[in-house]
Amino acid sequence: MDAIALYNLERWNTLAREDALFTRPALDLTPETAREAIDPQNLLGAVSGKSVLLLAGGGGQQSAAFALLGANVTVFDLSDAQLGREKVVADHYSVIIETVGGDMRDLSGLPASHFDIVYHPYSLSLVPDAQVVFAEVARVLKPNGIYHFTLLNPFMAGMTFSDWDGESYRLRAPYVQGRTVTTPDASWVFREDQKPISPPQPNIEYVQTLSGILNGLVAKGFTLFHFSDNKDMYPDLNAEPGSWDHFVAYAPPWLSFWLRFTG
To answer: What is the mean pLDDT of the chain?
Structure first.
């Protein structure tokens, strides 16, 4: 395990210990709300009976939704604490969720051409070279399988709603492949009534240029069929300047890709 993996492992185990937002299992879903949670536009089609890999997706959130929709779910994650959340979900809903520990850059422990869907929650920016991950995903997907991931917007990387200067959100950082972006966790990540006992280390992400992402995916046999720059966002130009909803109206912080593996 290299320094990057060790850092992410320690950080996410700490986040789970502090009950951070992204580590809380989804225990109030129904089959009706499950689809809205993972695929409100129904881009995946029917998932019942499909083999789904949640890549770097521990925490018991998306897994609960897929399991309730009848999918055969495997969760692959670096954090043992996050994988532990999957047992909570499996017991709560009386479903089967397989868990595998490991780094998203090495899926050699998973069978080739096995999964119908690889669903990759926001985590790809935590490694410096997405191309390594794309190659691994291509190996484990079935022909015509679907790969979905969400990525840090490379054009706005490092900007936050606190960058409002009274007139605009200033873009200061260069557009460079591999540039690191270090940010502390916002207060809303933790419960209002519970300050973290041992705050996690700051989040470290790596810029992936859009040309590198798209050309790399094409080279590995992926075809884009849907793209979004406003997933899970509610931009509002009339909101208070310096607020989240105002900020995302100017600078969408992440990009969402839906692709089919055509080999």
So the answer is: 92
Three-class DSSP category at 203: strand
The number of domains in the chain is 1
Q: Kindly report the three-state secondary structure assignment for every residue of 121-168.
A: CCCHHHCCCHHHHHHHHHHHEEEEEEEEEEEECCCCCCCCHHHECCCC
Count of residues making up the chain: 263
126 belongs to a structural domain? yes
Q: What is the CATH number of the domain that holds 115?
A: 3.40.50.150
- Asked if 29 contacts 65 with a C-beta cutoff of 8 angstroms, the reply is yes
Question: For residue 225, is it within any domain?
Answer: yes
Q: What is the pLDDT of residues 67-84, one digit of tens each?
A: 999 999 999 999 999 999
Residue 180 lies in a domain: no
Residue 35 is predicted with a pLDDT of 95
Domain contains 53: yes
pLDDT tens, residue by residue, 181-219: 998 776 666 666 666 556 678 889 999 999 999 999 999
In angstroms, the first-to-last Cα distance of the chain is 30
pTM, 2 dp: 0.93
- Among the listed residues 42, 78, 81, the one whose alpha carbon sits nearest the alpha carbon of residue 60: 81
Full domain range(s) for residue 213: 3-26+45-153+207-235+255-261
Take residue 218 and report the two structure tokens written for it: 């094409």
Report pLDDT for 138: 99
Judged on CB neighbours under 10 Å (0-12, 13-18, 19+), 92 is middle
